[in-house]
Amino acid sequence: MTAEKQSTVGSGTIKPDRKIVKLYLAAIAANIISLSLGTTIGWLSPFLPLLISADSPLEHGPVTDVQATWIASLLCIGAFGGTFLFGWTAEKFGRKASLLATAMPLVGFWACVAFGTTVEVLYVARLLAGLAAAGVFLLVPMYITEIAEDRIRGTLGSLFILFLNIGTLVSFVMGSYLSYHLTAYILFSLPIVFLALFVQFPETPQYLIRRNRVRDAESSLKYLRGYTSTPDHLEMLRSEMDGLLVQVSGEKDSTEQSSISLADFAPQSARKALLIGLVLVSLNQLSGCFALINYTAQIFADSGSDLDPNMAAIVVGAIQIIGSYGSTIIVDRCQRKHVYIATSFFAAIGLFAMGTHGYLKSQHVDVSAINWIPVASLSFVIFIASVGLLPLTFVILSEILPPKVRSLGGSLCTAFLWTISFLVVKYFPVMVELIGLHGCMWVFSAVCLSAGLFNAIFIPETRGRSIEQIIHAMENNIKS
Question: Could you tell me the pTM of the whole model?
Fold first, then answer.
């Protein structure tokens, strides 16, 4: 091992040294689109109350409650269709080109918001946002997994949720202090910035090798790792290239690769990975965190909290970022299983506390002395979920799927995620009417508890392991 490599591995710390600085830059550039997507997701919380009020910026006045639920949930429908579109383009045109294409629907979203004057235009805007969300949720983790070194794969993978949460907070803040149209004009620029920056980074070496473009793959790997022409670096480059070539040696050639089908899930490791992935994304959405983000301001208003709803949303968004940043720090230092299980259980406790406050209030118990509980509980839940439960879903999913079926398997899991997300977001207000806000919090709490148990029983540890080692663990039911 060279002295350069010892400086980052020997002490057990993970620092962006000269050798991998371009790898960090590539991950950050790729996640600018996550930041942009976060602003479209966060847009709903501050502006939905405006759209249903007498001050609505739409020419026909305020939207109805039914129209409001469609505005919230149409993103998920757009994402369902976009998942298969971007899953196909990822194999046909590559990870990089497909990721660049996700900027176009986001440009369309902000154009519709800025210049649209009817609720139908907002429906189109949310469908476009969903189309982009499908691509970003599928392609950013995929791109990061395929360019990252094993030792920092978790750190780079957790940047996805961090940037997504930063974007959400940006929308919360801008929605509280800027006008409806000015917010759209400013945020219109983010996908453009992404296009300008990310276009200079290379395609993933794994994809290029599977397309028999070995020379291009070598150039990509050399760029991402910062390898020079020194003997030590050339030896490291050859060693890593040999490993990648061996990894795809059992796959079909490039003409057959494009016709991936469900038959490719015949191996036990592939079937098991897909089933685990489907359950993970279901638990991710049924935990309620995405619904809570969409309705943050409304939840605080309905819960009787003394804090201004939009300010409460900003506080929660800031705490979410702190949690996401914490995830980037610990994800490659602690066992993934331990972090996921612990954060799931703590999130369950926070949601249970919020539900209990709501139940006491519904029973006309004087809770004025503890009206801080909704803000504190939800802030705690979002923080702790952002440390482990939310980001690790996508880190683990991208790691456990075998390379041959990563695109199709990721598409299926992401489509299922958006299906569950649509049902949760669309019918969350209905469930609040049926069982109360407190009942919803208790259901979400039970789901978080189930998520921790599921991880403990069925999912292998992936930290620091190569993709081949993870597949071996899946095949042999190795959990530790």
Answer: 0.77
